[in-house]
């Protein structure tokens, strides 16, 4: 039996690795979710590889789990990259239109994007994506797609997303050692937007926030274009650590309390309510009563810090309280009880939980979770950039060269 046309999205987070496998439906752009797997991640901290051997074994386990679920081998994947090392900067590129009749072609657009790429990248950084925001033809600005128009001078305004070369190489090395080829290496938030944001939200102005374990990532869209991206080095694990210190208990117990009893909204917690710590712990046998109010105070303080840092990023681009489509929260940390209401209050914007779109008939329930949004987005990215979407792939991915080099280099090491 021939293997079906499948695309795998691999989201390597600081606390969990998640994979989503989509099968492309024949004769159309449709897809169906055929598998999903997750496992605790080892060898990663704040989105950066800290131990290659640990990460390779974690990846191998997730892939094995996914293969058992789907019944066929996973040979390639679209891999997400994130972490505090990701940087963005604005750039522009100008070219002269090449055809004699001055009609702008795909090649002219590609040359303009290439010219925008020729920026002075910081030492040891590599360009991951060149995202065209808009074009100008002979000083007429605000053009979204210049192909077919007439002009002499074509200019593109773009945003460059860069990653630390060493981290890109370490991550690709781990994925290859786990036995999988990389179809594309994508900044996680760009892919996450594929699975959670509608075209209308991107046009109106929206911020997508992924609250991960050790980092919180942000991407802002306006008029359909990426306006700003940022990675903040604080995440949901910091809340767990605060609870562990504040309640004088283990990290595991604090994590269980955070998931089941904690609230980020003090107003909804009664002073009289208490919980017994021993019920959340396998090691503590003695009954220890703790006020839920005290737990909420600790949780809310750190949740407020995360939201204040998000607002600080929005202030940098003058969008604090100014995004009509509001804020969409994804990632495991977004499910914290009371976090949504606190976010509405602190960011002064409408806030919604970002559930993956287009999964009405999905048989795998766990994929509907906000924590799976990045992995699903990566798989969707793979579907949309295959086949007839070559131009978009060219605009977004300049990391293919690095991947090809890594592939050749790594294969030369194999026995």
TrEMBL record:
| A GO BP entry | FtsZ-dependent cytokinesis
Q: How does it sit in the membrane?
A: Peripheral membrane protein
Q: Where is the SHS2 domain?
A: 7-196
Pfam families per the UniProt record, alphabetical: FtsA, SHS2_FTSA
Q: Which InterPro entries match?
A: ATPase_NBD, Cell_div_FtsA, FtsA/MreB, SHS2_FtsA
Which keywords fit this entry according to its UniProt record?
Cell cycle, Cell division, Cell membrane, Membrane
Alphabetical GO CC annotations of the entry are: cell division site; cytoplasmic side of plasma membrane
Which SUPFAM superfamilies did the record assign? Actin-like ATPase domain
Q: What is the role of this chain?
A: Cell division protein that is involved in the assembly of the Z ring. May serve as a membrane anchor for the Z ring.
Give the quaternary structure.
Self-interacts. Interacts with FtsZ.
Name this protein carries in UniProt: Cell division protein FtsA
| Organism classification | Bacteria, Candidatus Komeiliibacteriota
